[in-house]
Amino acid sequence: MSAATETMAAKKPANGKRRLRWPHYLLIASGLLVLLSLVRVIDDADPVTSSGTVSASLRLAVPIFLAGLGGLWSERSGIINIGLEGMMILGTWTGAWAGFQWGPWIGVLFGILGGALGGLLHAIATVSFGVDHIVSGVAINILGLGLTQFLAGLIFATGEAKALGGGPRQSPPVDPIMTLTMPVLSGGKLGGWQSPDWLGSLEDRHWFLASDLAGILRGLTSDMSLLTLVALLLVPLSFLVLWKTPFGLRIRSCGEDPYAAESLGVNVYRMKYAAVIISGGFSGLAGAFLVTVAAPLFQDGQTNGRGFIGLAAMIFGNWRPGGLTAGSLLFGYTDAMNVRGGGQAVHALLLFVAILLIGVAIWQALRAGKLRPQAATDLARREVRNAYIGAVLALAAAVGLLAWFLLSDAVPGELVSFTPHLTTLLVLSLASQRLRMPAANGLRYRRGEAR
Prior knowledge:
With about 450 residues, this protein is mainly α. It contains 17 helices and 4 strands. The strands form 2 sheets. It has a two-stranded antiparallel ribbon with strand order 1-4. A two-stranded antiparallel ribbon has the order 2-3. Helix 3 (about 50-75) packs parallel to helix 10, helix 3 (about 50-75) crosses helix 15 and helix 4 (about 85-100) runs antiparallel to helix 5.
């Protein structure tokens, strides 16, 4: 066997399926952009790819993927963390409390510390005392909600905080974090020179594909908060630490087989504590983002389930940073449709999803046809049958959505507001067939008790 053949074999997973690489993902993204542009032109729904929608999508996605990153760190060490929501709530309160007094960046730091404190409590309960991970996570959520409501009434509704606009359900305003706009492309300033907004001019022409690409680039390069930029950099940083450093390898080994890691000299307790505290810090940062970028103050109920959606994005991403980010952007985009486009923009997405489902139906039918001649066992025949069933269901759903699109002009407002949550349910149900969580995730570990 030649060296080139050995290399190709090494890149092929054990199940025989070829793993997708970055060129494949870029090709898929390009195809989706072309399809989205076509849908925008057909339905005359400019908000679908407008810079405002893209900017709102990013702003709405950041707290989701920060919470998801927190869940990723915790569950890669073997600790299930459904307390992300409570840790986010702690981050919003501590971030607002410090932010209105000493500035937004100090608020961000205190938000991280508040979330890390929630992570520490979760680690003490699950790692040291062996409490069931789900029970501990639920307790953290209840504690975060109740404690912040009590502290808001105690601190924000009295004294100087009240004089500055605070109350029992909200904090005084927090100064916003500075934003950046890229010069030359999006009309930013370069020194004392105000550059023209080339991307904005191209977007306003509403040309096929070119204006859509300009709108996306303009949304990513204009009025971006510095904290958003920092949050985006945490995605590759998390990948590098978890997959390219000895520290990350030790954490992941604790999530796969803690007793094997223990036999190699890894302090499993220490690694789990570190991962869960870091998880809380990420969730707290997500909460601080909400009070310094998304809205300039703390409000009761501000997280609005984003911690749970972040957990769903992590599962959709198969416990990896890249997939987690894609899932978060998807949820943020559907939420932005509710904010920016409303029923007309979501109506255009009906056609988009219908075309995708037709593609899925064709792919499943071709897959079944390819597998059918080789179906010699009951398991293989069952796989062929499931592929045909999948094709029929996808085609039926596509026909239904296409009929809905043709027979209506807009989606009802009640359904538009439910779109992000509906997307969460659909994505999790469709992704459930390919998920592979860490092997020891959620299992109780005690030093020296080898299985």
